[in-house]
Amino acid sequence: MVWPNLTKLFPVAEPTGFRELRSEFVLRHAASFRGKRGFVVGNGPSLQPGDLDRLVGEISFGANLIHMIFPDTEWRPNFVSVTDSRVWSKLSDHPVPEIPRLVDSSFQGLSLTMNVVPFKRLARLSSDYYRLRLAGKAFSKDITRGYFGGYSVTFFNIQLAFALGLNPVYLIGVDHVFRDNKSKFVSRPVRVDSPSDHFHPGYRRNGEIVNSAPVRSIERAMRSLGRIEEDTGFKVIDLTPGGRMPGLEKGLFDQVVGTPEK
């Protein structure tokens, strides 16, 4: 039996310099990004290389194994985010090292000499976390202090986009479709034995151990975005065709980026 990593429930002291590094990162990019629009790219089966080609020149955030689509598109994200330790263990030798990686600061082997920016996950057992979550406000307005996991790297990227002053933010490839690696409220290690729920059939190996996607907890986190829009005017719009994420305003990709040239 594979046991979950319980250390994620407790606060962890960060190495010296991590908070200063991400503070400098946020200040530097917010200076040029503020007031612009951004795109958060998920890795769902609807993600198409042709659509990504139309995002060349846009500010965009990729995640996890997004590099697997690079051979089919000229698009490259500004950043690649990883908040799952199992995914990070597969990316120690990143195929595109020039793209900054934004990662959880608890990952093993991080140093200030790597092309990474570490972000601290707020402890799930802290009173602050539960107070905000119960109030529907589990969304970090100061990501230099820490981020809320929301059981999704997409949720991290949305908080990062907010911190960098982007507005609105559009989602593509966020299908919210899972087969045998889903659970309801808590993520747990599971073995995947079905076709990939991602844009690439080889995204996950048959029999690979992954952290399950707790769909109800993910949806709860995403619903908090409605409260954030009311409080701040920060808007998140889902452009994923057929996307099943509830509680988000829906839009059409062609209306946002324009119809493709023939």
Can you describe this structure?
- There is one protein chain.
- The mean pLDDT is 86.
- The chain has helices at 18-33, 49-53, 85-88, 127-134, 153-163, 215-232, 253-257, and strands spanning 38-41, 59-63, 79-82, 101-104, 116-119, 169-172, 182-183, 189-191, 209-211, 213-214, 236-238, 249-250.
- The N and C termini lie far apart (54 Å).
- The protein has seven helices and twelve strands.
- With 262 residues, the chain is α/β, with parallel strands linked by helices.
- Helix 2 links the parallel strand 1 and strand 2.
- The strands form three sheets. Strands 5-4-3-2-1-6-11-12 form an eight-stranded parallel beta sheet.
SSE topology sketch:
Elements: H1 18-33, E1 38-41, H2 49-53, E2 59-63, E3 79-82, H3 85-88, E4 101-104, E5 116-119, H4 127-134, H5 153-163, E6 169-172, E7 182-183, E8 189-191, E9 209-211, E10 213-214, H6 215-232, E11 236-238, E12 249-250, H7 253-257
Please report which band the strand proportion falls in: under 5%, 5-15%, 15-25%, 25-35%, 35-45% or over 45%.
15-25%
Strand order of the largest sheet: 5-4-3-2-1-6-11-12
| Class from helix and strand fractions | alpha/beta
Shape from CA axes? globular
> Unreliable segments (pLDDT under 50, ≥5 consecutive)?
none
Return the string of H and E elements: HEHEEHEEHHEEEEEHEEH
Tell me roughly what share of residues is in helical segments. Answer: 25-40%
